[in-house]
Structure formats: C-alpha cells, structure tokens
C-alpha cells in the first residue's frame, strides 16, 4: 500500500512539474517581451528628447549667428541708411507714381550729379571718413541685399509663369482666375519694387567709390602722386615700409582700388549664384519631364567625372566647376584657369593673410592691390627700380616691374614661411592679364598669382580606365605600324619572296625586325632625352603614349607634364631636348645611309629596302642631302625603284616625326618650345598661323601626313600648355637662335623638293 501511494505521489509531482513548469516558461517569455518594449520606448523617448535638444541648439546657434552678423554689420547698416537717406532712397516708390516715374526722375542728369555730389560731401566733410574695412563690409552688405532681391525676383518669375486652366479663364466671383489675376498683379508690383532696390544699391555703391576716386585725384593734384605712384621715385636704398609708415591720412587711390577689387569679387560670386538658381530651375523642370539634369551635361561637356571612382579618389572635381568657370575673373590666365577650376581646391583666406604678412611684406615687392576668389588670388605691386629715380615716360620704367630674380627670392621666403605655408600655397609670376596700354605706361605690370598647392597638372591616376585603355591600344597600333612600315619598305624588292616556295625570305624578316628596332630605338632616344632633362630640372613627367601612323609607322609620343616647370627656360630645355636630339641624329644617320648605299657591294644591294625615287623628292631636306651624296638618284623618274640602305629608312621616320613635333602647335614639343620662347599669347597666334600653313600645304600638295597630324593635334593637343611658375622671364638669346634654326630645318623637312610631291 505504501509503495502504491509513493508511486501515485511521484506521478502527481511529475504532472504538477510539467504543468507549472510550462506556465513558468510562458510567463518568462511574456516578461522578456515586455522588458524589450519598455527599453525601446525609453530609447525612443531619449531620442526624441535629443532631437528636441538638437533642434533648440540649432535655433540658438542660428540666433547667435544672426546676432553676430548684426553686430558685424551694425556700423555698415547705419552707414548704408545714411547714404540712402541722402539719396532719398528710403522713400517708397509708390509715393513717386511707380517705378517708371521714379527712375525717370532720378536718372535726370542734374539729379544724378546732385546725388554724386551729396555722397561726396558726406564722405569728404563728414566727422570721420569711413575706414577701408568698414567700406568693405558695406560692399558685402550691399551685394548681400542685392542677392536677396535677385532670389525674390526669381520666385516672382516662377509665380508669373504659372498657367491658368481654360475652364478657369472666365471671370467669376471667387474663382481661381480672379485669385490668380490678383496674385499676378501683386507679383508685378513686387517685381518692380525689388528691381528698383537692386538698382538703388548698385547706384549707391558706385557713387561711394566714385567719390573716393575723386578724392584721390584731388589729393594727387594738391599733394603729388599717390602712395603707389610715389614708390617709383624711391631710391634703391630706400625702405618701402619706412616710406609707407610716414604717410599720414588715407591714400584714397589705394582705397578705391581695393573697393573696386572687392566689387569685382562679389559680382563674380553673384553671377555664379545666379547660374546656380537657373540650373536649379532647369533641373526641377528636367526632373518633371524625366530629362537628364544639367550636371550630366556639364560633366560630358567639360570632361568631368560624374562620380569619383577608385582611379580618381584624389581628383576633387564636381559639376560645380560650371559655377567656378562663371565666377573666374578675367585676370586669371587661360593656361592656369582650367587647372584651377578642374581641381576645385580652395585657397584659405588665413593662408592669404599669412602670405601677405610673412612673405610679401618682407620682400622687395610692395603690394599695392589684391584681388581674390575662393580658388585664386592676385597681388599687384612694385619693386624698387635699379636706378635712383624712374619717371613714367622713361625707357627704364619697366625696371620697376617684378623681375624673375625677385620672384625667386619670394619663392624662397615662401619655402621658409611659418606653419608650413608652402605646403598649402604656390605662386606664379605673370604679366598683368588686365594690362591696358592706355592706362599702364611702359608695358604690363608684373603680378603674383597664388593658388592652392593642390592645383597641379593632371596626374596619371586621373586618366581612368578609358584613358589607360586608349593608351594601351595606341601602343599596340604603334608597334604594328612600325612593323608594317619596315616590312613595306621591302615591298618593291623583287627578291622578297622565295620563288620555289612563295614564302617570305628569312633575311627580309630579320631586316624588318632590325629596322623596327632601329625606329623604336630612335623614339626611345627621344624620350630618354626628355627624361634626363626632366630629372636634371626636377620636372615630373608621365609615361609617354606613342602616336601610330599609317604612313611612317610612328609619329612620336605624347609626354605629359605632371608638375609645373619653374621657368620658361626649363620648359624650353625639356621640350626641345627630345626632338632636337632625334632630329640631329637622324640627319647624321640619313647621310650615313646614303653614303653606304652609294658604296654598297653588289652582293648586299639585293637585300636592301626599295623606295620609289619620288620619296627622295617628298622632302626638301632629304632631297638636298640626296643631291649632295647620291645625285644620280634625283635624276631618276619618280616611279623608278631605288635600293636604299636600311639606315635611311630608319632615319626617315626620325626626321619626319621630329619635324612634326617641332612645329609650334598646341601642347606638342614644338608648342611648348614656342610658348617658352614667345609667351602664351604670341604662341597661340603662332599656333594658328602654323595650322594655316599646314592647311595651305595640304590643299596645294595633298599631304596626307600633315592632314593626319593636323587633325590629331586639333583633337587632342590643342589646349594651352601647363604654365611655368615664372612666366615672365624670357629664355636666353642662344636658345632662341637654336630654335629658329631647328624650326627652319623642320619646315624644310616637311615641304617637298622642287618637282616632288608632299608626304
């Protein structure tokens, strides 16, 4: 009985254990879910609290910014209000009968002169003349107001462009057409109002600057030349800083220049902002109509990458280059402007301030004015002349300009500037791009242009997959072209094929390989000359890309610059070394080949390449050499096959490719040399003249080779050359003479001998 009761008890315990155990497990899961929900709710509440806190902080930050802005422009606002009050701009235009009546009254000649005089009297006879810093703030505030008005005009234009549905075009009380008509009338009134405000602000600013310019003229008439002009009269031993510190009062001429520079900077930025608003409107419309946005068009047109891929991680270019192009000032040289814009690298104002204080202020260059944008800055000024006094009309006036020697001193000071400034800023020396003979006597003033150190010529990794593939294909075609040219040189040889088997004789295969090796060796010599010169001068270059040719197998190579040469002389030495070396060696090889041909044994002649006699007359230079060393060849009919030593066929490629590369076109070696010798503008004119010369030769003599070379350079090498840091100091006379001689020889190589046909 006890055993049965124990068994019953155990069963009961097992049953209760299962029952309560399962209930306990369910309660545990329910408790876990409830805890997770509670935790999630707590996190959501905390996140919401953080969002509110961040929102409040953002509002407070904006309020602080607005307060700081008001404090910054407080005096400027007071000054603007006073000038507006003098010009009666604070009166609403409605009181004048509308915008048209208002401006018809304000633009009367006597009213304009009266307003100018009123602003002049305010500045001249006021208690204290506003400082330059205050007037710069006034300029910023005026253009900011102008920008606000332009934005509102853009919004009003969108309202006025809204269309009314045909069913709403009838007049009904309270219908949409009535409301739209009232809306359009209000938009027209506001458009007139904001248009008047824009003109008021710009007129007011112009009157202010004109008044200061007038003060400068009066001071020069009464006290002599302005501070900038007086620097020309300094003795060699004078200290510019000491002279400047002795001047009392404001230099109105310098102040007016700085204000005009600020005006140009703000106007360029305003133009870029206007372009952004237009592009935004076009993109919005394109999105509705499912058309591609403006960004994609800009990327395709300017050749900019839409996305930064793995090969272009350091290439910081976006579609904002369009706006940078619009805002680029006229004083940025074309050869430098493209690099500045496509790099998109900003130059910090703090770096410009450090450059002025630590580098330029301690040099022999006195900065008289400065212009800047977010990408580039220009410093205009003077250097003490080498003579004790220099007048504006003297021939030695140009000696007061900045020389290459002084620029080198400034670059050296930059390299030793604090805070590693040379790692962030680089300098270029140019003739003033805004030079005007009517204003600037004695030639263009020398200026220093500063950019970010990140602005560099295009690097090899920027080429991308497409560029790399194109270079590889060009290399393959060049090798095939060289082999084809070498083999075709034997085409007229009657011993080319074995009569018994019909196969190509091995001796000609060996000759083809040897000739191909000789042609490639000549081109390698060309590139080796470039490489040795670049290492000597510290110029970085990229891998050369060969240019294939159907006529001679190889036309040369494109050797890109990866850094800026320090001077025009360095650019000359680098560019001239390759084609000049190859040309001279090719001339020697050609003459040796002619001599070996004339003196060749009877046994060796059957294995020579064979040319038509016309080839010797296709070049004036080779025709002269043949007339001198193998005169009988020049007497043969044009179609007569002439055995020629392989050295002549190799030298022919070297002569023609070197002559083409020496032509002053675009970014070829010849274009680089002409840029270094004549300067940017003259080199561009010479390039156009060369294109014209090539066109004339092509039309009259039907030169296929020149047609191909002209098309190639026009498509791929027409852009301006990479600028040199010192773009002013000219090359030595000896280099100029040597270049002229080589250029004449190149032309003689490309024009046909009398009675001959062009290549």
Q: What labels would you give this structure?
A:
759 residues; disordered N terminus; elongated; 23 helices; 8 strands
Low-confidence stretches: 1-6, 11-25, 227-249, 302-318, 386-401
Strand order of the largest sheet: 1-2-4-3
DSSP strand count: 8
Structural class category: alpha+beta
Main sheet attributes: strand count, strand direction, barrel closure: 4 strands, antiparallel
Number of helical stretches of at least 4 residues: 23
Please state the overall shape, judged from the principal axes of the Cα atoms: elongated
Portion of residues in helices? 55-70%
Proportion of β residues?
A: 5-15%
From the N-terminal CA to the C-terminal CA, the straight-line distance is: 129 Å
The radius of gyration is 39 Å
Give the integer mean of the pLDDT values. Answer: 77
């Amino acid at each position: 009985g006890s055993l049965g009761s124990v068994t019953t008890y155990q069963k009961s315990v097992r049953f209760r254990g299962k029952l309560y155990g399962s209930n306990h497990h369910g309660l545990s899961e329910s408790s876990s879910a409830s805890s997770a929900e509670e935790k999630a709710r707590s996190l959501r509440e905390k996140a919401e609290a953080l969002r509110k806190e961040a929102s409040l902080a953002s509002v407070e930050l904006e309020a602080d910014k607005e307060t700081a802005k008001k404090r910054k422009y407080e005096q400027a606002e007071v000054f603007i209000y006073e000038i507006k009050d003098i010009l009666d701009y604070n009166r609403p235009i409605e009181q004048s009968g509308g915008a048209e009546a208002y401006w018809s009254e304000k633009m009367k000649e006597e009213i304009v002169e009266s307003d100018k005089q009123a602003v002049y009297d305010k500045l001249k006879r006021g208690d204290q003349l506003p400082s330059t810093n205050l007037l710069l703030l006034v300029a910023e505030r005026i253009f900011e107001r102008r920008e606000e008005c332009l934005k509102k005009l853009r919004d009003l234009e969108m309202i006025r462009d809204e269309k009314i549905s045909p069913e709403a075009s009838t007049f009904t009380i309270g219908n949409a057409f009535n409301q739209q008509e009232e809306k359009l009338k209000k938009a027209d009134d506001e458009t007139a109002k904001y248009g008047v405000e824009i003109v008021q602000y710009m007129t007011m600013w112009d009157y202010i600057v004109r008044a200061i310019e007038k003060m400068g003229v009066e001071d020069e008439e009464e006290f002599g030349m302005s501070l900038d002009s007086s620097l020309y009269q300094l003795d060699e031993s004078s200290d510019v800083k000491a002279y400047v510190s002795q001047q009392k009062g404001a230099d109105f001429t310098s102040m007016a220049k700085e204000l005009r520079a600020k005006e140009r900077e703000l106007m360029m930025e305003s133009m870029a902002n206007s372009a952004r608003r237009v592009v935004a409107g076009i993109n919005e419309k394109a999105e509705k109509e499912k058309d591609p946005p403006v960004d994609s068009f800009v990327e395709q047109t300017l050749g900019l990458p839409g996305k930064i891929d793995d090969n272009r991680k350091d290439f910081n270019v976006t579609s904002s280059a369009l706006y940078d192009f619009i805002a680029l000032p006229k004083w940025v040289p074309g050869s430098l402007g493209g690099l500045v814009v496509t790099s998109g690298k900003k130059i910090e104002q703090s770096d410009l301030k450090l450059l002025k204080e630590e580098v330029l202020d301690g040099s022999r260059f006195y900065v008289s004015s400065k212009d800047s944008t977010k990408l580039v800055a220009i410093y205009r000024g003077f250097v003490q002349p080498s003579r004790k006094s220099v007048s504006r009309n003297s021939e030695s006036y140009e000696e007061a300009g900045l020389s290459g020697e002084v620029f080198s001193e400034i670059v050296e000071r930059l390299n030793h500037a604090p805070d590693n400034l040379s790692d962030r800023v680089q300098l270029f020396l140019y003739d003033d791009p805004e030079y005007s003979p009517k204003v600037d006597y004695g030639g263009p003033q020398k200026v220093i242009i500063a950019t970010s150190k990140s602005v560099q010529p295009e690097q090899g990794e920027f080429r991308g997959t497409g560029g790399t593939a194109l270079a590889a294909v060009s290399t393959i075609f060049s090798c095939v072209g060289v082999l084809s040219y070498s083999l075709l040189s034997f085409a007229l040889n009657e011993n080319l094929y074995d009569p018994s088997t019909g196969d190509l004789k091995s001796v000609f295969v060996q000759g083809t390989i040897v000739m191909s090796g000789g042609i490639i060796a000549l081109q390698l010599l060309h590139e080796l000359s470039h490489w040795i010169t670049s290492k000597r001068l510290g110029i970085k270059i990229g891998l050369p890309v060969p240019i294939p040719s159907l006529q001679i197998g190889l036309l040369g190579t494109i050797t890109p610059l990866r850094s800026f040469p320090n001077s025009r002389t360095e650019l000359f030495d680098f560019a001239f070394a390759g084609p000049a070396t190859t040309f001279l060696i090719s001339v020697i090889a050609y003459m040796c080949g002619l001599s070996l041909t004339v003196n060749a044994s009877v046994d060796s002649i059957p294995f020579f390449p064979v040319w038509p006699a016309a080839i010797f007359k296709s070049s004036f230079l080779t025709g002269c050499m043949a007339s001198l060393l193998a005169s009988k060849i020049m007497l043969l009919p044009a179609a007569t096959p002439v055995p020629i030593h392989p050295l002549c066929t190799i030298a022919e490629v070297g002569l023609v490719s070197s002559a083409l590369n020496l032509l002053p076109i675009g970014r070829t070696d010849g274009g680089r040399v002409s840029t270094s010798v004549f300067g940017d503008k003259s080199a561009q004119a010479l390039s156009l003249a060369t294109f014209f010369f090539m066109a004339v030769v092509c039309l009259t003599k039907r030169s296929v080779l020149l047609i191909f070379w002209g098309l190639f350079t026009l498509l791929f090498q027409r852009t301006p050359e990479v600028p040199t840091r010192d773009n002013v100091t000219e090359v030595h006379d000896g280099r100029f003479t040597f270049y002229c001689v080589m250029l004449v020889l190149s032309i003689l190589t490309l024009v046909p001998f009398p009675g001959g046909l062009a290549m």
